[in-house]
Amino acid sequence: MEQNPGAMAGSPRSAIAAADTIGVPHSVLEDIYAMVIGMAFVVVGLVLLKAAGLVTGGVAGIALLASYVFPLPVGTIFTLVNIPFFLFAYFTMGPRFAIKSTVASFGITFALAAMPQTFNVAFVNPLFAAFVGGTLCGMGILALARHGAGVGGTGIVTLWLQRERGINAGITQVGIDATILLASLTTLPAGRVAWSALSALAMSAMVVAWHRPGRYTGR
């Protein structure tokens, strides 16, 4: 029987293919590193969006929008909004996912609180803030999702729908984001909402393109 050289035992291609098929669990160190990187992406993205006076999609967008109305830090609002979603995650996605997501949420909150002493943006072009800030938030969400965690809020619901119903998390998020952007019209000028729409699109595009069922099997 003729063998495909690329599928021979011991070849790099066969090892990668086997790992992609059966799923190689992440180590604790890998999970910790990925979660730190994911949180860092989200935090920097939020700082850029806040500096430009924009919002975005998901729980991050809700927190940003609320911060323009209430005299509370973005991080504090982020945590408060997330509490009911973490309870939902515990009963629907399991304790492991809920604990990881809670850690990620508090990590983002504490990092945002430390940002004024660490990273201060005096000026940022709204186009740059929308595209780069939204993309960084999306990359952070993706990194966390691939290691069994979420940033909380609507992201938990979309990941649950993808796992249980096979509905792409990014596509679901687009519908939620559209609702948040429409609500922001009551608070922000139309021009800022338009830039915010770009940030939400950039964020969701990362998840739509790279978080497809079956594409990534590590846990």
UniProtKB/TrEMBL annotation:
Task: Please list every transmembrane segment annotated in the UniProt record, as residue ranges.
Answer: 32-56, 68-90, 97-115, 127-145, 166-187, 193-210
Q: Which UniProt keywords apply?
A: Cell membrane, Membrane, Transmembrane, Transmembrane helix
Q: How does it sit in the membrane?
A: Multi-pass membrane protein
Principal location class? membrane
The protein's matches in Pfam families, at most eight in alphabetical order, are given as: YitT_membrane (PF02588)
* Cellular localization per UniProt: Cell membrane
An annotated GO cellular component of this protein is: plasma membrane
Put simply, this protein is called Membrane protein
